[in-house]
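Schema walk-through. Below, the input block comes first and the output block second. Nothing else is stored per chain. Lengths vary across the set, and this one has 164 residues.
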Amino acid sequence: MSTAAAPRIVVGVDGSQQSVEALRYAQRLAPAFDATILAVAAWDYPAEYPGYVPLGTSEFADAAKIHLEHAVTKAYGGNVPNGLETTVVFAHPGKALVQASRDAALLIVGRRGHGTFRGLLLGSVSASCVSHAHCPVLVIPHVAEEPASENKPAAGKVAEDADA
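--- output ---
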């Protein structure tokens, strides 16, 4: 007899303020799902690199890892949720998050992150997740970037955030 894995909330992290808020929402919702949190940072070679990219180049993976670590620190400070896992994946972010959603209870993404097309109502990654995820998707609306010196508390009520 096998035991089922604990439910998991997957969070897409690109270092944007929306992804930091997504991490905070995951922390608030995890108890309701009795779930752990998996923070996923995905990277792919930028479109500007249509030709040769040297094998073994790790600067993109390193940048994704740094964005992930900073987002986790910004979201939680010293109050990191129990069972939090982080991973950096080499794949298009939308595809990586859809794949991670296969075994998830919930997928949380920002409405739009650090993409190029600032005028889009819904970013391409969040639109892909909404269209193709294997679980419910929560899309965090636009939030203003916080000044670097300000440190927002990790805990709070969802209703209070909606009034802001």
